[in-house]
């Protein structure tokens, strides 16, 4: 009997093996599908909580902004400022490398500007970075730097308002030396030997003394006076050099005064050529034009874009006539073109 049942079972399996295989496949497929659905469900749950976590992290700065607004403001200032400073340092190193390769110094205006500002910025920020590297000093130096940004931080950390205010303070400091420098120029009038030049120059001095500015063509006609006595760099008296250094924001304690003045004149000349080579002042941004005017001795505050461009055009007319022998003329141009300018007088006497 048992043998009969076994044979019957084997016959049933043999006859229905295809059906049994399909049934097994369906059951297995169902189990796999169920397992896959569970996996997808778990994956969706993980993804949901991960997305929630990421969104929380992203919005956490807003949470901190609401709870600690002043702290977050300081953090952003130092974070953004440090990044900007780092980028400028990298650019500055590339400029130095470029200058070593290209001896003709074919730099753009922005590169020339950075080569002028970066050494001063690094000198100013270095003590702060050095002290902050000492353990536990960051709690002291950063608050101090935040409250005295003009002296302890560079422009990378300043707000737009601070940049404007500090520019005016620096400009006012330079303008205080305009009158003493004009007196030095006036005192040399009688030392001019050529009568024709003396007559033309006396007209220019009289124009400045009466509160107006001389014609650019008249200034160019007297450029010989800056190639030799009395206004060449080699002929300037001690007080004259001191006042000239001051209006160009160069330390009067420097040892090589004449060399520093010559380097500044060459830098201004290179900047003028670079601006014109790159399309002139029409391609410059408003901030770039304001910086250019401030660097050349004119307060750009309250000036319209058109008036700034007109003044810069007059400057270029003089600069284009300056050569290696008459570099001193470029250094005296802030007096010749901006001494009586209304924006300078307003800043100086208000």
TrEMBL record:
<keyword id="KW-1133">Transmembrane helix</keyword>
<dbReference type="Pfam" id="PF07766">
    <property type="entry name" value="LETM1_RBD"/>
</dbReference>
<feature type="transmembrane region" description="Helical">
    <location>
        <begin position="125"/>
        <end position="148"/>
    </location>
</feature>
<dbReference type="InterPro" id="IPR044202">
    <property type="entry name" value="LETM1/MDM38-like"/>
</dbReference>
<keyword id="KW-0999">Mitochondrion inner membrane</keyword>
<keyword id="KW-0496">Mitochondrion</keyword>
<dbReference type="GO" id="GO:0030003">
    <property type="term" value="P:intracellular monoatomic cation homeostasis"/>
</dbReference>
<keyword id="KW-0812">Transmembrane</keyword>
<protein>
    <recommendedName>
        <fullName>Letm1 RBD domain-containing protein</fullName>
    </recommendedName>
</protein>
<keyword id="KW-0472">Membrane</keyword>
<dbReference type="InterPro" id="IPR033122">
    <property type="entry name" value="LETM1-like_RBD"/>
</dbReference>
<dbReference type="GO" id="GO:0043022">
    <property type="term" value="F:ribosome binding"/>
</dbReference>
<feature type="domain" description="Letm1 RBD">
    <location>
        <begin position="174"/>
        <end position="350"/>
    </location>
</feature>
<dbReference type="GO" id="GO:0005743">
    <property type="term" value="C:mitochondrial inner membrane"/>
</dbReference>
